Amino acid sequence: MNTYAKASVFGAVHLGYIVIETDRFADWRRFGAEAVGMHHDDLSRDLMRFRLDDQECRFLIRRGPAEDVVATGWHIDDHAAFERIAARLRAHGVPAVEGAAEEASLRGVERLLRFPGPKRITQEIYTTPRRSTEPLRMPASGFVTGDSGLGHIAITSTRPTLLRGYFDTLFDARLTDYIDETISGLKLKIRFLRVNERHHSIAIAATRGLPVDPVRTRVQHLNIQVATLDDLARSYQRVHELGFDMALSIGQHTNDKELSYYARTPSGFEWEVGWNPVVIDESTWEPSTHQGISIWGHTPVGQTITGKLAQFRRAGLSLTRREETVAALGGAGVPDDRG
What we know:
Oligomer: single chain
Low-confidence stretches: 304-310, 315-320
Largest sheet: 10 strands, mixed
């Protein structure tokens, strides 16, 4: 890899949009617009978008069978950083294709480059988002995006060090901290990676010992950040009143101090709405390990024995499947003793 490609892109990368594939359009419209409180735009019978700010698209919902996140889009600050990332893809022999003009338009960007990502989540990068002059129509007063990006994505993995290697190679991701937690008898280690000032844009959870993945979907949860505590409380109330399932009640995390709750989306993965996480100061931050995900709250809601048995069955089945890590970028991985 040449010196140009090696120059760091940390700080120039921001989670920009998410593409979700579902056949449950009516439920997603109610969930996103009426419960969570985002601005909603119908594009056609098979396409709709949600906005959080003046960027035309933060979530693209397209009709299809996956019931999952199928792509993540990363906003790159400038063409120099964009070309550095593209050069890394070429140097590692990873195929990358230019998105068609129609695809870029649907995502609210001028152009995009697409390439394979871990867990079969396609990764896309772009430099120039299209801005909307249409006023936001939504019950929330606002969302925190900007230099922090739209929020974060959390995934479960049987090969977490290789996923760290992928995002380290691609985006110069930095380890923020770890959490050790035990959930339903499974011991977990969660790795939190940042690519800018946001505490983390990527969280990778893995079981200790036996490498199993109990989660059906490619993502475990998505996160967005509301502007005020009142927005958090009101959206929590709307989720309940509209009959959507709550996964975890309101609580506060140990590591980023974010106050949040987790609702269950119509597609089955979870959606975290949070408020007031810490912002990283690069001059002073040192990675550490926290015991447990929460200082208080985040109590599981509506868990059943049947649901737990289904999780254990999925975990067992994951032993028979090879997880996609994009080996060319993951390499030998980044071990946990490297901060």
